[in-house]
Amino acid sequence: MGGKISVTGTFEMNRGCPYTCTFCINSGFHSLYENSGGYYREQEIPRLIDEMLEKKEKYNLSFVYLVAESFLTTTRKRIEEFGRLYPQVGLPFWVEARPESISKDKVDLLSSCGCEGISVGVESGNEDFRVRMLGRNLSNARIIEAFEILSNSDIRVSANNIIGFPDETREMIFDTIELDRQINVQGVMVSFFSPYRGCTLRELCETKGYIKEDDIAGDYRLGPTMDMPQLRREELIGLHRTFPLYVKFPKHEWDDIRRCEQNTPVGNTLFQEYSRRYIEQFMS
Ligand code: SF4
Question: Ligand 1 centre from 193 Cα, in Å?
Answer without folding.
Answer: 13
